[in-house]
Amino acid sequence: MNLSQLYYFRKLAELQHYAKAAKELYITQPSLSNAISSLEQELGVSLFQKTGRNIHLTKYGAEFLAYVNKGLEQIDKGIAIMKNYAGTGDGGKIDLGCIITVQTDFIPKLLNGYKAAAGGVAFNVREDTSIPLVKDLLSGCYDVVFCAKGNEDPDLAYVPVLTQKVVVAMSSDCPLVEKEFVTPTDLLEQHLITYVDTIPLGRAVRRMLDECGIKNVEYSYLDESILAGFAANGVEAAVMLDTFLLRSVDDVVVRPFYPSALDRRSCHHRVYMAYSTKNYHPYRVDHFIQHVIETKALKPDPNACYID
Question: Which of 5, 98, 101, 134 is a plausible cystine mate for 146, CB 3.0–4.6 Å?
Fold first, then answer.
C-alpha cells in the first residue's frame, strides 16, 4: 500500500465515478482501476460496488474512508507546516467572514497586525450577519468568522474578542434625556424599539429586557443605523449597541444603560471569533486562530455585565 493509492481512493469515494476521478487525478482510468484493485486485494475487502455506470462505497469502504480522511488530513497538515518552516510554502489564504460593526476598525487592525507578524498570507474578507456567517462556516465557506454567539454547537468553538456597550438612544424630546444614565426602572413606561429577536443579538437583548420585566418593546430592526434614526426622530427610545453606525446618525442622544442606580456596571454584548472544530484547517488557519486566542481573547470583567 502506498500514499497515492489512499489519495486515489479518497477521490474515487468523493466522485463515485472512475472516469471523473481519473480526470481530476490526472491519471488514466486503467491506472486508477488497478490501484484500487491492488488496495482491495491488500485489505482483503471490497471497497466499492458497481451500480450501473457508477459505483458506491460498500460498508467496508465507508468505514475505511473515515480513517483515510483523518490520516491524509494529518499528512497534508504536516507537509504544510514543514513547507512553512522551510520557507517554501505560499503563505496560504484565509477566508474570513465578519459582521459589519467590526469590519471598519477591529478586523483591519487585527489582519494588519497578523500580516506584520506572520507575513505571506492573504485574507478574503466578506461581511454578513451572524446567522448566515455561522451557517457558511460550518459548510466550509469560511475558515473563521467574527460574529455574535448563537446556539451551542459541538462542532463550533467560540472565543470572545471584543465587547460592544449597551446604550439607550433617544431624541432630544424624550423624557429620558434629562437623565445621566438609564436603568430598567426608567424604561418600564417607555415605548422601546430594539433588534429583531430572530438574530442572536436580538435574542440576547430580549432576554435582558424580559428579566427586567420590560414589556413595551418592539423587536423589529436589524442594525444600529435604523434604530438610531427612528430614535432620533421619534418618540421611541432604542435599546442598542454603541457602534460606529449609531454615531453616524445626527441629533441622536445616547445614555449609558446600567442594571440599577446602585449597580452602575456597564452592560456589554460580546463579539466572538468562531471556528469549526470538525472541518480541516490548513496550517496557516490554525496559526491565525492561535494568534487571535493569544492576542485578543477576552477574560470576563467583574465590573461589566454581559447579555450574551
Answer: 98
